[in-house]
Amino acid sequence: MSILIIIILFTLVFASLLYHLLSGPAHRLPPGPRGWPILGNLPQLGPKPHQTLHALSKAHGPLFLLRLGSVDVVVAASAAVAAAFLRQHDAIFSNRPPNSGAEHIAYNYQDLVFAPYGPRWRHLRKLCSLHLFSSKALDDLRPIREQEIQRLTRSLLVGRPVNLGEAVNVCATNALARATVGWRVFVGEGEDTAAEEFKEMVLEIMKLAGVFNIGDFVPGIGWMDLQGVVGKMKKLHKRMDAFLDKLINEHKRGSGGRDLLSVLVSLKDDEGEDEANKLSHTEIKALLLNLFTAGTDTTSSTVEWALAELIRHPTLLHKAQQELDNVVGRQRLVSETDLPNLPFLQAIIKETFRLHPSTPLSLPRISSEPCEINGYYIPKNATLLVNVWAIARDPAVWSDPLEFKPERFMPGGEKANVDVKGNDFEVIPFGAGRRICAGMSLGLRMVQFMTATLVHGFEWGLPEGVNAEKLDMEESYGLTLQRKVPLTVQPIPRLVRGAYEVVEC
């Protein structure tokens, strides 16, 4: 086996050298660091690629080229360059490159996130937009979100430290599940164990999906699975697939018919429905996989980052609580309808998305044809990575870019008119262009609502021996940006007791 591997590697080196000798540099490519034979720049990415690429952009500029194995990868590390790709040339970069995560976890590209751009993708997105993410759907499902957040506040009245990320994740998952499949997935006996197992699966998916798998970039050696990534993906897929099958089977035993899964199943079973619009059982599971991964962990991790920053900055926390007390009072919990009247709270959320974007590197895209960006030639089939994390730390755009300063988004601040919805490329936590996050409207509302409720409803203490000013803010890289050390906090109620009662709907 070892001799075979050596022969394969030698052949690949020879083929790579021959290709470059014959092709020659016919175009002005973006600058970039020198790489290794065969692997190119793969070994240089390190455990936190978004930080590594940020450092490389300082040396090579806001648009630079990497060679990952045999794949050309262009990196956009400034707002202007990102806009050139995702606004001026968005049509060219509307597809995803091949990758093992989409193949082995996302049902071989049958989902929404990794599906090829075209009629099928548009149909899936339209279904989600109509039944989950439209203004009408969001308003219709508001009582569900409010009830689940009330349950969250009740769960925090335990008088002991809690893992905030886990508690918020249960809330986000149950709110999404009730809208998607019609009931809470974590309830009653064994709730803590089931929720912990689900969160662990989602985190593992995000971690594996964020790995730069050598087999995706070096042809001919994928079967060896040198990093063991594909094997882990296949095992994890079986676990998640069993979870989704259970959801669908439970759904068949009875549903109110207002949830997304009811709509998808009705399309599948409707004999009069156009075949082009029908979804297979696998496609339904792939769509649910997207919703339950992208729609839960990203929300809970952002709320966790926001609370950590406010605990580190007690003056900002107190200011936010004052705003909430003035608008809402202390006799009830905040409601979703209060959110437009809370500009400082909204500024806190924007600043959290800036410093701690849920997806530090945008999901990759691939060019369908060559184009020119900033005077550089971008070849066909080049992979595009937008370093969202680096763009939001650009000192040419942001004053004190490493400081948590929500006031920059307030009237009179340096970025008072900037939003996070893909229009202003200085901060694009949901991406931009055609493949912007489909669930942006729901995700933004949930993050705002949960953060407002936690800030309004509680004072926040830390375990003994933990200093707020020295709270560990280290990142753990994956497809989503997690805290390396989960946030353990002591919630102390600050409203009247009756404010925490759950109103059934």
Automatic annotation (TrEMBL):
| Keyword Cytoplasm appears in the UniProt entry | no
Listed under GO biological process in this entry are:
cholesterol metabolic process; response to herbivore; steroid biosynthetic process
- Which residues of this UniProt protein bind heme? C437
* One CC-aspect GO term: membrane
Q: In which pathway does it act?
A: Steroid metabolism; cholesterol metabolism
Alphabetically sorted, this entry's keywords are: Cholesterol metabolism, Heme, Iron, Lipid biosynthesis, Lipid metabolism, Membrane, Metal-binding, Monooxygenase, NADP, Oxidoreductase, Steroid biosynthesis, Steroid metabolism, Sterol metabolism, Transmembrane, Transmembrane helix
Q: Does the keyword Phosphoprotein apply?
A: no
Q: Which InterPro entries match?
A: Cyt_P450 (IPR001128), Cyt_P450_CS (IPR017972), Cyt_P450_E_grp-I (IPR002401), Cyt_P450_sf (IPR036396)
Q: How does it sit in the membrane?
A: Single-pass membrane protein
Q: Please give the cofactor(s) recorded in the UniProt entry for this protein.
A: heme
What highest taxon heads this organism's lineage? Eukaryota
Q: What is its main location?
A: membrane
Q: Where in the cell is it found?
A: Membrane
The entry lists its GO molecular-function terms as: heme binding; iron ion binding; monooxygenase activity; oxidoreductase activity, acting on paired donors, with incorporation or reduction of molecular oxygen; terpene synthase activity
Matches recorded under SUPFAM superfamilies: Cytochrome P450
Q: Which Pfam families does the entry link to?
A: p450 (PF00067)
Q: Which family does it belong to?
A: Belongs to the cytochrome P450 family.
Q: What's the protein name?
A: Flavonoid 3' hydroxylase
